[in-house]
Design brief:
The complex is a heterodimer of chains A (248) and B (493). Chain A is α/β, with parallel strands linked by helices and 248 residues long. Helices cover 46% and strands 15% of the residues of chain A.
Chain lengths: 248, 493
């Protein structure tokens, strides 16, 4: 049985967010689905809400729209009748070449992966800290463990997210709040479609299961699958003067 | 931003007018038994004007309000998730005290403790007090609380001369037995669903000593306890029975009655001394003054489980056999406020907390029903750790729990493993109560459902109360989790 009664998933329309939401609603957790694409959300909600009482509530929202977050967050808590878990699963990974320096594209990457996360997880941390309970889950990436030539800003925002989550953990962990950083390797989602040479690729189902298991166990940092922890330890240990010569 | 709940309904259109509340007011509010809690936006006004301001603010934001006094109801009677919690503990002034007549006028946040400490040295004592001195008078009136003397003096409502009630519109209604009498009998015991008390006028009881003459009487089973209490009704001032809920078969319901009587005028040669607050106060230490009472619950915590509580109840019963029949004196505070002996004792029940299950049964049916309830507990292997029996009488308040009979209050530990079984068991016990024409008490309740409410209060009574609510609070601004649970889900969610 899931340890939560109410949950909020940001980025619930596809990929890991949708699968996490599917498992939450199936497990009896009333879940608010937040994403930009209303039609995709509505479709999911139709799939989840087969019986009464309704388990999935739908809220269309663009994470770039920071100003509407506080009010929407409060409204969701009210409509759910509480909040025990928040999962920030929204994110984008632009396809770029080694020659791309597109600041406006980078701004979108920063906004969806990091600024949006801060906007949603700040009120959640404030609330959970006051409650002395609650679980915050952020989806980082193994990409955040090292700055790679292939996607500088994506690596940077995932590193930023991981550090932000660590800081939140240090801030509200002592009040009884679990802050869980998930660092998946490649996951078979729309975000990675068309990419080749993906090492240790896992399915979205495997990822969602790992995310919820880590959240229920109130883990701090979890790699998905677990062997990435060892791999990334090795990768992090490579001295910079060698790393910069590698083709990662 | 757009909410796309499917399917769209009128409820959602109403939701659109709901405005946000400042997040710095967000707090976790607990049921006293700590088996339930809610996140609420809490406001603590200290004046009638500020109180009116909160009602106006709630109306403007389209939000609901739950009234809360000291938060001493065991269950969800003062909780309302994600809405405004109106905490009245700062409206704590004694507006008028007349030591000659014993009439006191107080704000709703004044506690029983504030009240007796002001009155006792003038020779007065609150006519009705619960087992703890920490509830507010506003809360006591809303729940129409009773004491160990209920069979003799009725609930606290019987001693309220008058009150002023602020309706959600901000209007203040003065109510007594002549003026707005309907509202008087509905709001006392109306669990905060009609308006907020802004002043309450109460008649206290004359006492001639700070002591009571207390006689313990051990009883070998439930039948003996009830008939022993029944036999003492016309002479005892206070009667309360403790039950060892672990005892079975022929000893089922064995326990100890405490009878307490006021000393008559002149019987206490040092009345002026015994009436001093200092000589009433509960001691702050235990173990011969070596340890502060504040640590007691930590020592209790490892013992709050079936085998240890069985042993504790057994030892208590054995020692009661030795005390039986020996009259001694005790201060009013010591006798009345048993629940305050161990400060914060509820925390010994954490992490799951506790619920109290109290039912009121007409006297002729009481033995059979209580016996049935105790047996149900044994069958389910969910014994109550504390059982208390009291004698009651009927009264005229609309939502009353009072009837001519007995009540049995049972404390149950709640854990994440037993929660479902416990609620299922109380449903079984509720059935016994309803079949016997019994009643329940909102201050204690955690388990009642809507259809059960209609069965015990009668359709007619519930309808009359809801009509009154529509008149006083047309927007159903005043709600609690308890209200939503027993009156269905009105308008919201």
């Amino acid at each position: 049985m899931l340890p939560w009664k109410t949950a909020l998933v940001v980025g619930a329309s596809s990929g890991m967010g949708a699968e996490v939401a599917r498992r939450l609603t199936k497990g009896g957790c009333k879940t608010a689905l937040v994403a930009r694409r209303a039609d995709a959300l509505t479709k999911l909600a139709e799939e989840f809400n087969t019986a009464t009482p309704v388990m999935a509530l739908v809220f269309a929202h663009d994470v770039a729209n920071l100003a509407e977050v506080p009010e929407l967050f409060q409204r969701i808590c009210r409509d759910l009748g509480g909040l025990d878990l928040i999962v920030y699963a929204a994110g984008v990974m632009p396809r770029i070449t080694d020659e791309t320096y597109d600041t406006s594209l980078d701004a979108v990457t920063i906004s969806a992966n990091l600024t949006g996360a801060v906007a949603w997880l700040n009120p959640a941390a404030e609330r959970f800290g006051r409650a002395g309970a609650g679980t915050i889950v952020g989806i980082g990436s193994v990409a955040g463990d090292r700055g790679r030539r292939g996607n500088p800003v994506y690596c940077a925002v995932k590193a930023g997210l991981a550090t932000y989550l660590e800081a939140l953990r240090n801030r509200v962990g002592r009040l009884g709040v679990a802050v869980v950083t998930i660092k998946p390797g490649p996951v078979d989602t729309p975000m990675t479609q068309g990419l080749t040479k993906l090492p240790m690729l896992i399915s979205v189902e495997q990822a969602a299961e790992g995310i919820l298991r880590a959240a229920a166990a109130r883990k701090s940092v979890v790699y998905l699958p677990g062997k990435w922890r060892l791999v990334m330890w090795v990768v992090r240990s490579i001295p910079s003067f060698i790393f910069k010569k590698l083709n990662f | 931003m757009s909410a796309l709940h499917q399917p769209a309904s009128a409820g959602q259109r109403r939701r659109a007018s709901v405005q946000p509340l400042p997040s710095d007011h967000l707090e976790r509010v607990w049921a006293w038994g700590m088996s339930a809690s809610a996140m609420e936006y809490v406001y603590r006004p200290s004046t009638v004007e500020a109180l009116r301001g909160v009602f106006e603010f709630a109306k403007k934001q389209g939000r609901k309000i739950a009234l809360r006094g000291a938060g001493r109801s065991y269950g969800d009677a003062s909780l309302l998730a994600e809405e405004i919690g109106l905490d009245l503990t700062r409206m704590r002034r004694i507006l008028d005290w007349n030591p000659t007549t014993g009439i006191v006028r107080v704000e709703p946040g004044v506690t029983i403790r504030d009240l007796w400490q002001v009155a006792i040295e003038d020779g007065w004592w609150p006519p009705v007090v619960p087992g703890t001195m920490h509830p507010t008078i506003g809360g006591c009136a809303s729940m129409n609380i009773h004491g160990k003397n209920n069979y003799r003096v009725g609930p606290i409502g019987d001693h309220i001369r008058e009150f002023e009630l602020m309706l959600p519109s901000g209007a203040i209604k003065r109510c007594n037995r002549e003026q707005n009498a309907d509202l008087f009998y509905a709001a006392i015991g109306g669990f905060g669903m009609l308006g907020c008390f802004t002043s309450i006028t109460l008649a206290l009881k004359r006492i001639y000593s700070g002591h009571l003459a207390v006689t313990p009487i051990a009883t070998p089973n439930l039948g003996a306890m009830l008939s022993e209490m029944e036999a003492r009704l016309d002479r005892a001032d206070y009667l309360v029975g403790w039950i060892d809920c672990f005892a079975k078969a022929g000893s089922l319901g064995r326990g100890l009655i405490h009878q307490a009587d006021h000393l008559r005028e002149g019987a206490d040669p040092s009345a002026a001394q015994s009436l001093r607050v200092e000589n009433q106060e509960l001691p702050e230490t235990f173990m011969w003054g070596l340890a502060p009472r504040s640590i007691m619950w930590r020592l209790m915590k490892p013992m709050v489980n079936n085998p240890c509580m069985k042993a504790v109840n057994w030892v208590k019963y054995l020692s009661s056999l030795r005390q039986s029949g020996k009259t001694h004196t005790q201060s009013h505070a010591e006798f009345a406020f048993l629940l305050d002996y161990v400060p914060g004792w509820k925390r010994a029940y954490l992490p799951g907390g506790l619920i109290q299950y109290q039912s009121f049964i007409p006297a002729p049916e009481a033995e059979r029903v209580f016996r049935g309830q105790l047996e149900v507990c044994h069958q389910n292997r969910l014994p109550a750790y504390l059982g208390v029996v009291k004698r009651h009488r009927a009264d005229d308040f609309w939502m009353t729990h009072g009837l001519d009979g007995f009540s049995l209050a049972l404390d149950f530990k709640v854990t994440r493993y037993n929660r479902e079984r416990l609620w299922a068991m109380t449903a079984q016990m509720n059935k016994l109560v309803i079949e016997a024409g019994g009643r329940f008490y909102f201050a204690k309740d955690s388990t009642l459902s809507g259809d059960q409410l209609h069965s015990f209060l009668s359709e007619d009574r519930v309808k009359r109360f809801l009509d009154m609510k529509r008149r006083c609070d047309p927007d159903t601004m005043l709600q609690t989790e308890l209200y939503k649970r027993v009156f269905g889900q009105p308008a919201l969610r």
